[in-house]
Amino acid sequence: MAQSGAGKRIVLTGGSGKAGRHVVPHLLEKGYKILNLDLVDYPDPKAGVTTLKCDLSDSGQVFNALTSHYGFEGYDEGAPPSPPDAIFHMAAYARNLLVPDNETFRGNVLSTYNIIEAGSKLGVKKIITCSSETVYGVCFSEGDTDYHSFPLEEDYDVDPMDTYALSKICGERTARTFARRYKNDIYVLRVGNVVEPHEYERDFPKHVGQPMTRKRNAWSYIDARDLGQICDLAIQKDGLGFQIFNATNDTITTKETTKEFLAKNAPGTKITREMGEYEAPLSNRKIREVLGFKDVHDWRKYYKV
Ligand SMILES: NC(=O)c1ccc[n+]([C@@H]2O[C@H](COP(=O)([O-])OP(=O)(O)OC[C@H]3O[C@@H](n4cnc5c(N)ncnc54)[C@H](O)[C@@H]3O)[C@@H](O)[C@H]2O)c1
């Protein structure tokens, strides 16, 4: 069977980070040629990915990087490279409290603006960018606050009170603006809490045993490898213009069914539709139905309750 990424050149940003380390191998396996734009090298020098050191908050660097070779072999092709077939933008300050709030805002908003603007103006037809679960307003709220309703879906009236989530909402609006102007596909992924393979054994005893510690993540998560699958599916699916997709795995991170758990632990939050037996409250219904996502790494495979 032909690989989905065969013959496609993509630019990843932030590929050296937590999610990128698992997204990159998945995409290489699918046959994509990858150029990674990051401030630091990709951790595995043997992976076959060139990292171009590029500060995405500098527009000039971003425009340049998008017409760069993917490695020295590019010089044998006899012509300067054209822009990529697709961009997957992950680079960010991935939460609050890494740098002061104003720098989180500056870095994230400018980086997302620059990559979407440069990609659109250079004719890139598919741009996928990472937003966050935090836009649903509970993750970094001051004190114990409630979601408006469950399931959390893409048409929710997002209302965070923190700077990181605000920077992500600015990214979502930037995507919408450019998709309208350039008529390209710009898909926003509202990424859930990212889980790496080694974190199941380490973290899930607490996640499952003390479930209220996971309220801020809406008792949901995304396996970093499954995020790679979502990226591949989003590249394959053309013609949707501007879209927002929650990017989470299928199921709630509790022992109880979703209905039992929410009735007991979120009694004041209204339920707007019948939910699946173990459906994640940060629901991935749209990526399943529209992109054909199939959950491969359910947490129950790696941590037995
Ligand atoms: N980790 C999570 O649980 C989580 C949850 C929701 C959303 N997200 C989002 O998913 C994406 C990936 O998250 P992650 O956990 O892999 O983050 P990470 O911090 O592990 O990696 C981010 C990468 O971006 C790079 N970077 C930061 N600023 C840059 C800049 N100005 N120019 C170039 N590169 C820059 C960093 O060097 C790093 O390699 C981010 O957009 C993040 O906001 C993550």
Q: What's the total count of β strands?
A: 11
Mean pLDDT across every amino acid position: 98
From the spread of the alpha carbons, the general shape counts as globular
From the alpha-carbon coordinates, what is the Rg to the nearest angstrom?
19 Å
CATH topology description: Rossmann fold
Strand residues, percent: 15-25%
Instruction: Encode the helix/strand succession as letters.
Output: EHEEHEHEEHEEHEHEHEH
Give the distinct bound molecules: nicotinamide-adenine-dinucleotide
Structurally, the number of domains stands at 1
Largest sheet: 7 strands, parallel
| Uncertain spans | none
Q: Supply the CATH architecture.
A: 3-Layer(aba) Sandwich
CATH class descriptor: Alpha Beta
Give the end-to-end Cα distance, rounded to a whole number of Å: 38 Å
> SS-based structural class?
alpha/beta
Question: What do we call the CATH homologous superfamily?
Answer: NAD(P)-binding Rossmann-like Domain
User: Helical percent range?
Assistant: 25-40%
List keywords for this structure.
Epimerase_deHydtase; NAD-dependent epimerase/dehydratase domain-containing protein; alpha/beta; binds nicotinamide-adenine-dinucleotide; two-stranded parallel ribbon; 32% helix; 7-stranded parallel β-sheet; 8 helices; 305 residues
How would you explain this protein's 3D organization?
The chain is α/β, with parallel strands linked by helices and 305 residues long. The chain has one domain (9-300): Rossmann fold. Helix content is 32%, strand content 15%. It has helices at 20-29, 59-65, 101-121, 163-182, 199-209, 224-236, 258-265, 285-291, and strands at 9-13, 33-38, 50-53, 86-89, 126-132, 149-150, 185-191, 194-195, 222-223, 242-247, 270-271. The strands form three sheets. It has a seven-stranded parallel beta sheet, sandwiched between helices. Strands 6-11 form a two-stranded parallel ribbon. The longest helix has 21 residues, at 101-121. The chain is globular. It binds nicotinamide-adenine-dinucleotide (NAD). Nicotinamide-adenine-dinucleotide is lined by residues 14, 16-20, 37-40, 54-57, 90-92, 94, 107, 111, 130, 132-133, 191, 193-194. Nicotinamide-adenine-dinucleotide binds next to β2, α3 and β5.
